[in-house]
Amino acid sequence: MRYFFHIGYNGHTYSGWQRQPKVNSVQEVIETKLSQIFKTPLTINGCGRTDSGVHASQFFFHADIEQEWDFDLKFRLNKVLPHNIAIFDIIPLEGKPHARFDAVQRQYDYYIHTYKNPFLSQLSSYYEFDNLNLAEMKRATALLPKYKDYRAFCTTPDKNEHTICNVMEANLYTTPNGDQFRFHIASNRFLGKMIRIITGKLLKIGTGNMSVDEFEHLLITLETPGMLEIAHPTGLYLSKVTYPYLNLPPRTEFSGLQQKDWVAV
């Protein structure tokens, strides 16, 4: 039987989702605990690959588990996993659905705070900017769904079969007092560090170091900029993953940031 696991994690102490030699990954931690519970090696397949330090308030992986069990697996797994990884749901699915290849949409949110705050330091990116030009940042954000090729917003474009992304949504939000910001984007796929590169460009626009026309020029010409200002990983969240057969609401209580009264710019 194939099972989908609906999870969330704080990625601050992990070198990303994917198992890699000699580093601490979310995948390796979960595989180790699952294998210990079932006393047999188990491999899991995630819905994507988050970078080192990046969070997921909604994430799915699938696992094939032949053994039946007569205990509360969600409770037991949550008990043995570290505090920064949570299992929300375990869903049996018929056939061979794939957590990564079957996803039709992924949504990400990037959080920024503009004042030093010890309680946000692991959950949001700190940029001490005053008087960001939100109107120009909004103009640039609105351009994103109008273009399909994101070659200019990828660290290694030639490693991909193509650089086409169907960006369905792109919005900018702020808190009522204007000292925190959230960039939201949804697409069928994303390229390596694409969201952090876009966020870096938006911040350049907000501080007057880049024009909206220059930003659009990259989307039109597909020229890779000489300098890629990549935003910090800390503020980035994979926040929703949608399948043709599975569309669960995110467990927003996973991050207190997501409970704020965000206002569209």
UniProtKB/TrEMBL annotation:
Reactions performed catalytically = uridine(38/39/40) in tRNA = pseudouridine(38/39/40) in tRNA
Which GO terms of the molecular function aspect are on file? RNA binding; tRNA pseudouridine(38-40) synthase activity
Q: Which domain of life is it from?
A: Bacteria
Task: Quote the InterPro entries the UniProt record gives.
Answer: PsdUridine_synth_cat_dom_sf, PsdUridine_synth_TruA, PsdUridine_synth_TruA_a/b_dom, PsdUridine_synth_TruA_C, TruA/RsuA/RluB/E/F_N
- Pfam families according to UniProt: PseudoU_synth_1
> Residue limits of the Pseudouridine synthase I TruA alpha/beta domain?
148-244
- Sequence similarity: Belongs to the tRNA pseudouridine synthase TruA family.
Q: What does this protein do?
A: Formation of pseudouridine at positions 38, 39 and 40 in the anticodon stem and loop of transfer RNAs.
Subunit structure of this chain's protein: Homodimer.
What's the protein name?
A: tRNA pseudouridine synthase A
